[in-house]
Design a protein that fits this description.
The protein has 72 residues and is α/β, with parallel strands linked by helices.
């Protein structure tokens, strides 16, 4: 069993997504990325993250909709 914390970043803007990935990895986190809410929801089931960082304003599906979907 790994003690590494898995973080899922759901962010539509590539430069922000990559900056978060870099900084989290530098701090020792295992980072997984999704570029939109739909892919983020799929990744939650696949990755089983310990923490999800989700953008609030995204096209197609916003952060509130993602949280509602994942919480069910």
């Amino acid at each position: 069993m790994s003690d590494t914390i898995r973080v899922l970043v759901i962010e539509d803007e590539a430069h922000i997504r990559m900056a978060l990935e870099y900084n989290l990895q530098m701090d020792g986190f295992e980072v997984h990325l999704a570029e939109n809410g739909r892919l983020g929801i799929e990744a939650v089931g696949r990755v089983r993250p310990d923490l999800v960082l989700c953008d609030w304003m995204m096209p197609e599906m916003n952060g509130v909709e993602v949280v509602r979907e994942v919480s069910v």
